[in-house]
Design a protein that fits this description.
The structure is a homodimer. Chain A has about 250 residues and is an alpha/beta fold. Chain A has helices spanning about 20-30, 85-100, 125-140, 155-165, 185-190, 210-215, 230-250; strands at about 5, 15-20, 40-45, 50-55, 60-70, 75-85, 105-110, 145-150, 175, 195-200, 220. In chain A, the strands form 2 sheets. The first copy, chain A, has a 6-stranded parallel β-sheet with strand order 8-7-6-10-9-11, sandwiched between helices. The two termini of chain A are about 30 Å apart.
């Protein structure tokens, strides 16, 4: 854990928090800290700072937070559409999305998504939030990505998405990963974009009707490179390439 | 499996191969093929093509390969140095390296590498090769990466590496990932490079002495972005960013 995330439910008063779970264990056994010791923390959906240990016992740890500083918002807001993957893959996508600063994760139905995946207990917040928090903790971020499940493909692209766009002043740039596409992100990305939504297909890829629907609703297709990647690698690859392009454009 | 990899030990004669293991199972239960059906194959360290099923039983499958075509060599040869990670992470690094076309993987000692990792059975070829083949199968590549374990940090950078360079006509470009670095790959990468070696540190990062040794031996440091990534994500991120830069430079 590069950053220990504190939440409202850990709060004792304005500046003090009580830790009793795996985080207390981490402080005792990995960081090996005692009273007076300090470590990096982030307040969920809030600033980063340090926590100083006031009391430590085998059962719990009381800390006081200080030096809180807000994380500047990214200049490029990134939302991710992901054809709902199998639960083992979804855990990795949740982790990576949080680690790399995705704002919203839209999990959608697609032809090659197994119907049973929509019944996975992992789609309950109590089960997926811990994976997001683990990702924030790794990437040293604090903003919890929003997760939304959409169980109708066409409705999502033709109704839901246009609704989101209408409610925003900022132009949305929409991209879909497709190994058959000719252009890469460097070629097709609008460097002045400030809100970007990219779509990653299921194992086995999109079917032609899906590509068509996305293109009709304003998505441009891009290739990530020579290889065929798994879903979790495609997410990391896209976010890494965006980071490079965006830094280069002075973002 | 996007590509089923065939090896010499599967060979019956010049064009026919016998499959009896998890690949036969995949052909029967996932691809659901019968006699006369065909699928994409790659010959290990050789060309790609198709295999046509001649005989199929519950026990084994005989195929005939055809339409073999060599994969053009990449214009940028990429070697990876990775501080030896824990076995669970090493499996991912092996898979990703093969999937994304790394030529050689140098696993090195570093201050923050646990000594016990060097005793892992995963460092035996019989245990690591299957992970590499799984990666080739995903990325649709055939060249098996070479894996070399180096258990002395200084010796590797000061003796082994200069030895490799002396034996080559091509200039080697050496880069080390470091979250503290200022420049990213777009800023520091020599676009005319044809042989690149990049180093990924252990969880917890390099220690100052290691950074110093690498800089003294010609490595330039680069950042992957705003976040702190895990080893396996840093490998995917670097290879993805290189792919983007290299395509853009017309490589």
């Amino acid at each position: 854990m590069n950053l220990i995330i504190l939440t409202d439910s850990d709060k004792l008063d304005d500046t003090r928090y009580l830790l009793q779970d795996y985080r207390a264990e981490h402080i005792r056994t990995v960081l090996k800290l005692e009273a007076g010791g300090s470590f990096e923390i982030g307040l969920l959906n809030g600033p980063r700072g340090r926590a100083v240990i006031e009391k430590i016992s085998a059962k719990d740890i009381t800390v006081r937070v200080e030096n809180l500083e807000n994380i500047p918002p990214p200049e490029l807001t990134v939302d991710l559409i992901c054809a709902l993957p199998r639960p083992q893959t979804l855990k990795k996508v949740l982790f990576t999305s949080a680690m790399m600063g995705v704002r919203s994760l839209h999990l959608i139905r697609a032809n090659r998504v197994e119907k049973s995946y929509f019944q996975s207990p992992l789609l309950e917040p109590e089960n997926y939030v811990p994976h997001l928090i683990e990702g924030l903790s790794q990437g040293k971020l604090t903003r919890l990505p929003e997760v939304v499940v959409h169980d109708r493909f066409k409705v999502f692209f033709e109704d839901t998405l246009p609704g989101l766009e209408r409610n925003s002043d900022i132009k949305l740039v929409k991209l879909a990963a497709d190994p058959e596409a000719k252009g890469d992100l460097g070629e097709i990305m609008d460097k002045k974009a400030s809100w970007l939504l990219f779509a990653i297909g299921p194992e086995g890829g999109w079917v032609p009707f899906e590509i068509e629907t996305m293109e009709k609703t304003g998505f441009r297709r891009f290739t990530l490179g020579r290889w065929l990647l798994r879903v979790e690698h495609a997410v990391t690859a896209t976010l890494s390439q965006l980071e490079l392009l965006y830094r280069e454009s002075g973002g």
